[in-house]
Amino acid sequence: MAVMTVMPRDSRAWTVDDLDQLPDDGLQYELLDGVLLVSPAPVKKHQAATGELFAILRAACPPTLRTYFAPLDWRPDQCTSLQPDVLVIQRGDLDAKNVTEVLTLAVEVLSPSTRRKDLVSKRSKYEDVGVASYWVVDPDVPSILAWDLVDGHYQLAGKATGDEKLELQLPFPVTVVPSALVAP
User: Fold this and answer.
1) In a domain? residue 20
2) pLDDT (tens digit, 9 = 90+) per residue, 134-173?
3) Is residue 70 in a domain?
4) Domain at 89, CATH number
5) Lowest-pLDDT choice from 70-74, 85-89, 102-106
6) Where are the alpha helices (DSSP H) in the chain?
7) Which residues pair with 4 in a beta bridge?
8) Considering its fold, how many domains does the chain have in total?
9) Residue 162 in contact with residue 143, Cβ under 8 Å?
10) Any idea what DSSP says for residue 72?
């Protein structure tokens, strides 16, 4: 089982400038409040679920929004750079290289090496900075949990497992069937 690694560092927090100096070696490098997080490349089941979900969201996405998939850095501050597996932003919120504006939707697809990071650390950061909707997909179960930001805190908008349909209204009307995300 792959383990998330925290790279050694002196007392100075990592910044996005430091991140830009790291090698392109197939690993996923993210920053969360100045701490460097390193994860292995995703496996096939993860990529299948990400691709299917991207296609569903892109097809339903209104013209005022745009759907992207990782790797694309979201940098809300100098000490944070995260790569949601799928993200939705306001059209025009992508600068030349990264997204710096608040996300409309962040989606994380769980892997053994990212489960805790996605369910606890990233969820907390997304909530703190005002990401309107946050979804977590587990391709192993398969299942999906969706939260919407209400008065500064995430509230469960819906959940589904297997062949159940999850109909969501935010960030736009869309229906997701978890088993369809990982069907062979």
Assistant:
1) no
2) 999 999 999 999 999 999 999 999 999 999 999 999 999 9
3) yes
4) 3.90.1570.10
5) 70-74
6) 16-19, 44-60, 115-116, 123-129, 178-181
7) none
8) 1
9) yes
10) -
